[in-house]
Amino acid sequence: MSEPVLDALREKITRVDQQLIHLFAQRRSLTNEVAETKIKHHIPVRDVRREEQLLVRLIKTGQEAGLDPHYVTQLFHVIIEDSVLNQQAMLAQRANPGSALPLNRVAFLGDKGSYSYLATQKYFSRRPGEVLEIGCQSFSEIVSKVEHAEADFAVLPIENTTSGSINEVYDQLQHTQLNIIGELTHPIRHALLVSGDTQISQINTLYAHPQVFTQCSHFLAELGSVEVKTMDSTSSAMLAVSELKRDDVAAIGSEAGGKLYGLTAIKSNLANQKENHSRFIVVARDAVNVPLQVPAKTTFVMSTVQKPGALVEALLVLKENAINMTKLESRPIPGNPWEEMFYIDVEGNLSDGPLQQAIDALRKITRYLKVLGCYPSEEISPTKVAAARALTE
Ligand SMILES: C=C(O[C@@H]1C=C(C(=O)O)C=C[C@H]1O)C(=O)O
Fold first, then answer.
1. How do beta strands 130-136 and 164-165 pair?
2. Tens digits of per-residue pLDDT, 345-367?
3. Which ligand 1 atom sits closest to the C-alpha of 31?
4. Burial, 233: exposed, middle or buried (Cβ in 10 Å; 0-12, 13-18, 19+)?
5. ipTM value of the model?
6. Ligand 1 contact via 52 beta carbon (within 6 Å)
7. What residues does the Prephenate dehydratase domain cover (predicted)?
């Protein structure tokens, strides 16, 4: 809205924002140059000490300029995360010459606006080539599209910080020959989406994916007696509400996704936990090479022999090789009651000695072991100590 008394000040703000954008772009191209140098001289991408020093100095400068240390820290966490992920993507591309496609055909759950759609956009924004989105109705359809070369990649949600592991995706991994080639985490911010000017008190029917209902159970309890309609994706819930054009229905989904369907968010932060994130995996027919300079993760699946302590014995192999396990999930084996398949994520590169040794040792003591993929880790834990230290110095 135009407010003549604010015009002059707003013009100045616009100019500052434009300068900020140019400065961010300048920083981005400098960090790209850093990546080139790291490739040439085999230097690891992440340098946490450099990040700490940089943050301590920025927090001090910020304080002198009247900026809150937490504000400065938050800003630079975002900037540094972007810089590290960008450098990792550059190194990963160099390590896989010929893998860059002019068109990446990506299969995911739902349609435009689903969380998987947003994660797909985010992952491929750092990679060359256009994206052709292939929305699917089920996880098995997604996997089958890549298996039959109707898609090049699939983006699949594997776990959520509120509702836990997505079992159906784990079960798909048990049977497929596809490889995990990447991962990403994406914040899941559920909002109540309506068409027109519906108020919360008018809502009788709520459309959402079952996972979403689980993640927002406290909000649902507060809402009282509404009919809950489960949909096979967030985007189909949003589509249903936009097509119904009624003032007593609402969908739960992301605000950004809702906009694509002309829906308005009338309440945000509906998840039980404030920090609600999903981790997605990216799968393809061919495995990728992960350069040793990039933090890597490896996922494998195994079943142990039927004897007491077999799992402990297997985990000890990881300990003996100083391999850090980041996730352990068990799933039943169809047709073999009471037997379990264990899915294990570890930090480490399959082409590195200790992990190779551990996998070789595990093959000897397990009944079955299959590596599902080695891929760059995108969990960039932010450097935390800087703010506290800068404040006490
Ligand atoms: C840019 C670099 O790479 C990474 C990103 C950093 C940044 O964005 O400032 C700092 C340290 C590294 O973790 C670098 O090493 O200088």
1. unpaired
2. 999 999 999 999 999 999 999 99
3. 1
4. buried
5. 0.98
6. no
7. 105-285
